C-alpha cells in the first residue's frame, strides 16, 4: 500500500470519525504516519500517547505505520516510543482545530535490544487487553508514598479486606506473581511482603483474568502479576522506609537498584516485630443428643518477620542476557492461649494451657538465560532453572488445670522441596503471536510429626508425598482489525515415582481461549474459557493430628486428589475519564477439596479434608473509576451465588448462598505535595459446604506529605477508629451437631511511616521475558495480543 493510498484511507476514516463525533460531542482527532528517518520504512507497533492533565489516551501504530487518537481535551504533547527507535515528543501548537494531521513523523533508529517499550510519557492508568487488565502504577500520583498493598486497593477486580487479605473477583483461590513468576516473598502471608514493597518500584500490576497456556494452571480466579523489573543507566537508586503500626509494632524496609555497565543489581529487604494484645476466642458445640461443649479463652502472639529478595542481571551483549535471583521469607512466633472448657459429660470445668512456637520460612533461587534474535525484537528463547524449599513447624506444649491429665507435647515439621527446568519460546511477528514451551517439576513433600507426654518419650511418624509434573504448552494469538484471538493448550502429566504411592498417574489437557472485540476508541467486549487445576498441599494431606484442643482434632487426608475446574467469562470495558469494567463468570467443578466436620465419639469433633465438593459459582464483578479534576475515585464490587454439595460418610451435604465484597477508594489532593485518601471495605459472608461465616466492614483515612523535592514522604493513617476489635464468626451445621465459633481480632490501628529516596539516575523498564513459573500448588490498546 502506498503512502498516498494510506493517506486517502486515513482521511476517509478520519472524516467518518469526525462526523460522528460532532454529532455527539466535540472531540479532537489526531492522526499521523511513523517513518524510519533513514530507510523511509513505515514503523508498526510504536506506542503513541497524548499527554493531558486529566487523562492520557494511548494507541499503537498499525502495520502501515499509521495512528489515530481521539480525545475531548486540548492536545499539548504527543509522545512516541518504540523498542527499536529513540523516543520522540511532538509539541502541538494547534489548540483550535478539531482534527490535527501531523503527516509524516520521522523516528531515529537505535541499536536493537531486548527491552520492552519505554514509556516516556504518561500511559493511561488502566488498560484492557485480551486476557488481562493492566494498572500502570507509574501513572498514579500516589506511587511515591504508597506501598504495594495500598496500591492494590485501586486495581480493578482486586479487593483488600480489613485484615489485609487479598481477593481477586471476590475469590481467595488465585496466584500472586512477581515479574511473571511465583516468589518466596508471597508464601505464607503475602501482605507482609506487599507492605514492604514501595509502589515507586512497581511499573504495573496485571490482573490476568484469563491466563494463557504458558502459565501453570493453578489459581481458579486468575493471576495477579506485579511487574517491578528495572533498567537504569550507570548509577544507583535507594529507598529507605520505616513505619509503626499501633498496636502491632514497627517495620523497616530498604530497596536498592544499581548498575555498572552491563551488570545490574537489585535488592529488597524488610523486617518487623509484632506483638498482638490478648484477644478472646470461643467454641460452642451443641450435639443433637443433648450434650454440649462450651469453650471460652484468650490468646496472644509475639514474634518477628523478615524477608529479602535480590537479583543480579548481566547483559552479555545486545541479544543475550543472564540473571540470577533469590528470595527468602520467614517468621517465628511465640503463642500462648488459655481455654476454659465446660461440657455436660464432665462434672468439672478444666482449663487448657497452650504454649506454641511455630515458625515458617521459604527460600527460592532462579537462574535464567535469555536469547534474543536480530531480525525480530519480539522473538525470545529462554532457559530457566528454579529451586524452592519451604520449611514449617508446629511446636506445642500443653498442660491442664482442673483435671488430672498429664502435660503433652506435639511437634510437626513439614514442607516441600522442588526443582524445576523450563524452556520457553516466544515470537510475535505482525499480527501473529506464537508461544511454545515445556517444563519439568520434581516436588518432594514431607511431614515428620510426634506426640507424647511432655519431657518423656515421644511417638513419631513420617509422611512423604513425592511427585513429578511434565508440561508442554502451545499458544497462538492473532489480531485482525478490531478482533483479537488467543488460544492455547497445556498438557499436564502428574506421575508418582514412589512404587508404594496409592495415587494413580493423572493426565490433563487444559485448554484456554480468549477473544476481544474493540468498539471505537474506548469500548471492548471480552470472552474467555479456560480449565484450571488445584493440587493439595502437604498441610492438607499430612495425617498429623493437631490435638491442641482435645475437643477439635484436625487431621489431613493423604488420599486427596487435584481439583479440576472450568471457567467461563464475559466482560465489557469502557476506558476513558470514566472507566467501567464489568465481568460475568461461571465456574464449576465436580471434585472440590472441602473441609469437613464430623462427630467422633463423646464430645469430639474431627476436622479433615475430602474431594467431595461439587461447586457451582455464578459471579458478577464491577469496577468503576472516575477522575473529577484531580480527585480520583474507584469502586470494586463482586457478587457470587455459590452452590455446594457432596456426599461424606453416606450423608448428603448441601449448602448455598451469596458471597459479596466491596471496596471504595477516593484520593483527594490538598496541594501538589499533600494528599488525603478515604477507603471503605466490606467483606461479606463466606459459604462453606457445612456452614458460613459472618460479614464485616472496615474503613480508613490517610494523609501523605512529600518534602525535600518529593524525596521524603510522610504517611499517616487511622483504620477503624471507632471499633477496637472485630469478631470473625463461623457457624457449622452437621447431622450430629451444630457449632458456633468466634475469634476476636484487633481492628483499630494507627500507622505512621516515613520514607526517603535518593539516587543518581532515573529507572526505565526492562525485563527477562520468561522465567520458571511454578504456581501450580495449593489493557485496552490496539496491540491486544501482549
Could you give me the name of the CATH homologous superfamily of the largest domain? TonB-dependent receptor, beta-barrel domain
Characterize the largest beta sheet: strand count, sense, and whether it forms a barrel: 29 strands, mixed
Q: Supply the number of structural domains.
A: 2
Named at the architecture level, the CATH assignment of the largest domain is Beta Barrel
Strand-residue fraction?
Answer: over 45%
Q: Cα distance, first to last residue?
A: 26 Å
CATH topology heading of the largest domain: Maltoporin, Chain A
Q: State the CATH class of the largest domain.
A: Mainly Beta
Beta strand count? 45
* Structural class label: mainly beta
Mean pLDDT: 85
The share of residues in helices is under 10%
The DSSP helix count reads 4
Question: Which structural traits does this protein have?
Answer:
Immunoglobulin-like, 45 strands, 29-stranded mixed sheet, disordered C terminus, 4 helices, 786 residues, mainly beta, 2 domains, single chain
Explained architecture:
The chain is mainly beta and 786 residues long. The protein folds into 2 domains: 3-110, Immunoglobulins (Immunoglobulin-like), CATH 2.60.40; 137-764, Maltoporin, Chain A, CATH 2.40.170. 5% of the residues lie in helices and 63% in strands. A hairpin with a 2-residue loop joins strand 31 and strand 32. Mean pLDDT is 85; it is low at 4-25, 111-122, 763-771 and 775-786.
Compose a concise summary of this entry.
With 786 residues, this protein is mainly β.
Write the layout of secondary structure elements.
Elements: H1 3-24, E1 28-36, E2 47-51, E3 58-60, E4 66-71, E5 77-82, E6 85-91, E7 99-107, E8 126-128, E9 133-136, H2 148-152, E10 158-160, E11 166-168, E12 175-178, H3 190-196, E13 204-208, E14 223-227, E15 231-232, E16 235-246, E17 249-260, E18 263-275, E19 279-287, E20 292-315, E21 320-343, E22 350-356, E23 359-373, E24 376-401, E25 408-429, E26 432-453, E27 459-480, E28 483-495, E29 506-519, E30 523-534, H4 538-541, E31 545-549, E32 552-555, E33 563-574, E34 578-599, E35 605-628, E36 631-648, E37 651-671, E38 674-683, E39 691-693, E40 696-707, E41 712-719, E42 725-734, E43 737-746, E44 749-759, E45 763-764
Parallel strand pairs: 1-7, 12-14, 32-35
Antiparallel strand pairs: 1-4, 2-3, 2-5, 5-6, 8-9, 9-13, 10-11, 13-14, 15-45, 16-17, 16-44, 17-18, 18-20, 19-20, 19-43, 20-21, 21-22, 21-23, 22-24, 23-24, 24-25, 25-26, 26-27, 27-28, 28-29, 29-30, 30-33, 31-32, 33-34, 34-35, 35-36, 36-37, 37-38, 38-40, 39-42, 40-41, 41-44, 42-43
Amino acid at each position: 500500500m502506498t503512502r498516498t493510498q494510506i493517506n486517502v484511507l486515513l482521511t476517509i476514516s478520519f472524516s467518518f470519525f469526525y462526523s460522528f463525533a460532532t454529532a455527539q460531542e466535540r472531540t479532537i482527532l489526531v492522526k499521523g504516519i511513523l517513518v524510519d528517518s533513514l530507510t523511509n520504512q513505515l514503523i508498526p507497533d510504536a506506542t503513541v500517547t497524548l499527554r493531558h492533565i486529566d487523562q492520557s489516551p494511548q494507541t499503537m501504530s498499525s502495520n502501515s505505520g499509521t495512528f489515530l487518537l481521539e480525545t475531548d481535551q486540548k492536545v499539548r504533547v504527543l509522545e512516541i516510543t518504540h523498542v527499536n527507535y529513540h523516543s520522540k515528543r511532538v509539541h502541538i501548537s494547534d489548540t483550535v482545530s478539531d482534527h490535527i494531521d501531523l503527516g509524516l513523523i520521522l523516528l531515529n533508529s537505535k541499536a536493537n535490544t531486548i527491552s520492552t517499550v519505554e514509556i516516556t510519557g504518561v500511559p493511561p492508568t488502566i488498560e484492557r487487553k485480551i486476557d488481562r487488565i493492566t494498572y500502570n502504577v507509574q501513572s498514579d500520583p500516589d506511587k511515591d508514598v504508597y506501598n504495594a498493598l495500598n496500591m492494590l486497593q485501586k486495581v480493578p477486580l482486586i479487593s483488600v479486606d480489613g485484615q489485609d487479605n487479598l481477593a481477586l473477583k471476590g475469590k481467595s483461590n488465585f496466584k500472586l506473581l512477581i515479574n511473571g513468576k511465583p516468589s518466596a516473598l508471597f508464601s505464607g502471608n503475602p501482605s507482609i511482603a506487599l507492605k514492604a514493597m514501595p509502589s515507586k518500584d512497581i511499573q504495573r500490576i496485571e490482573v490476568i483474568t484469563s491466563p494463557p497456556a504458558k502459565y501453570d494452571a493453578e489459581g481458579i480466579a486468575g493471576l495477579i502479576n506485579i511487574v517491578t523489573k528495572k533498567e537504569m543507566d550507570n548509577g544507583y537508586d535507594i529507598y529507605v522506609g520505616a513505619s509503626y503500626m499501633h498496636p502491632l509494632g514497627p517495620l523497616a524496609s530498604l530497596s536498592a537498584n544499581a548498575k555498572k555497565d552491563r551488570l545490574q543489581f537489585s535488592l529488597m529487604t524488610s523486617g518487623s516485630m509484632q506483638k498482638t494484645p490478648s484477644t478472646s476466642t470461643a467454641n460452642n458445640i451443641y450435639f443433637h443428643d443433648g450434650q454440649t461443649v462450651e469453650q471460652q479463652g484468650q490468646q496472644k502472639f509475639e514474634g518477628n518477620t523478615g524477608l529479602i529478595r535480590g537479583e543480579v542481571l548481566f547483559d552479555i551483549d545486545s541479544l543475550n542476557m543472564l540473571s540470577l535471583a533469590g528470595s527468602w521469607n520467614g517468621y517465628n512466633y511465640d503463642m500462648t492461649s488459655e481455654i476454659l472448657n465446660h461440657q455436660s459429660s464432665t462434672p468439672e470445668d478444666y482449663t487448657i494451657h497452650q504454649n506454641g512456637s511455630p515458625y515458617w520460612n521459604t527460600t527460592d533461587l532462579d537462574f535464567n538465560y535469555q536469547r534474543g534474535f536480530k531480525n525480530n525484537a519480539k522473538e525470545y528463547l529462554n532457559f530457566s532453572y528454579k529451586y524452592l524449599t519451604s520449611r514449617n513447624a508446629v511446636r506445642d506444649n500443653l498442660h491442664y488445670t482442673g483435671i488430672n491429665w498429664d502435660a503433652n507435647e506435639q511437634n510437626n515439621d513439614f514442607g516441600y522441596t522442588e526443582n524445576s527446568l523450563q524452556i520457553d519460546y516466544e515470537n510475535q511477528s505482525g499480527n501473529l503471536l506464537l508461544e511454545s514451551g515445556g517444563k519439568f517439576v520434581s516436588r518432594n513433600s514431607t511431614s515428620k510429626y510426634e506426640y507424647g507426654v511432655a519431657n518423656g518419650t515421644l511417638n513419631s511418624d513420617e509422611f512423604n508425598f513425592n511427585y513429578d509434573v511434565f508440561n508442554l504448552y502451545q499458544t497462538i494469538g492473532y489480531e485482525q482489525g478490531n478482533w483479537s484471538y488467543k488460544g492455547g493448550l497445556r498438557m499436564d502429566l502428574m506421575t508418582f515415582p514412589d512404587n508404594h504411592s496409592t495415587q494413580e498417574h493423572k493426565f490433563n489437557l487444559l485448554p484456554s481461549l480468549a477473544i476481544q472485540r474493540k468498539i471505537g476508541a474506548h469500548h471492548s467486549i471480552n470472552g474467555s474459557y479456560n480449565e484450571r487445576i488445584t493440587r493439595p498441599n502437604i498441610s492438607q494431606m499430612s495425617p498429623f493430628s493437631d490435638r491442641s484442643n482435645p475437643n477439635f482434632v484436625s487431621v489431613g487426608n493423604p488420599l486427596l486428589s487435584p481439583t479440576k475446574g472450568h471457567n467461563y467469562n464475559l466482560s465489557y470495558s469502557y476506558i476513558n475519564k470514566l472507566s467501567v469494567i464489568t465481568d460475568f463468570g461461571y465456574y464449576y467443578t465436580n471434585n472440590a477439596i472441602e473441609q469437613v466436620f464430623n462427630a467422633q465419639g463423646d464430645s469430639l469433633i474431627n476436622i479433615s479434608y475430602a474431594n467431595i465438593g461439587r461447586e457451582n459459582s455464578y459471579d458478577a464483578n464491577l469496577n468503576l473509576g472516575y477522575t473529577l479534576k484531580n480527585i480520583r475515585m474507584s469502586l470494586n464490587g463482586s457478587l457470587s451465588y455459590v452452590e455446594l454439595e457432596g456426599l461424606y460418610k453416606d450423608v448428603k451435604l448441601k449448602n448455598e448462598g451469596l458471597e459479596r465484597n466491596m471496596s471504595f477508594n477516593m484520593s483527594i489532593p490538598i496541594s501538589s505535595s499533600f494528599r488525603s485518601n478515604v477507603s471503605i471495605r466490606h467483606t461479606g459472608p463466606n459459604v462453606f459446604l457445612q456452614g458460613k461465616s459472618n460479614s464485616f466492614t472496615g474503613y480508613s483515612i490517610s494523609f501523605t506529605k512529600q518534602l525535600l523535592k518529593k524525596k521524603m514522604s510522610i504517611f499517616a493513617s487511622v483504620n477503624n477508629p471507632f471499633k477496637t476489635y472485630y469478631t470473625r464468626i463461623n457457624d457449622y451445621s452437621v447431622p450430629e451437631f451444630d457449632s458456633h465459633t468466634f475469634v476476636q481480632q484487633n481492628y483499630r490501628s494507627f500507622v505512621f511511616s516515613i520514607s526517603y529516596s535518593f539516587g543518581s539516575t532515573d529507572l526505565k523498564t526492562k525485563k527477562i521475558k520468561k522465567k520458571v513459573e511454578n504456581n501450580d500448588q495449593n489493557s485496552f490498546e490496539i496491540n491486544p495480543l501482549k
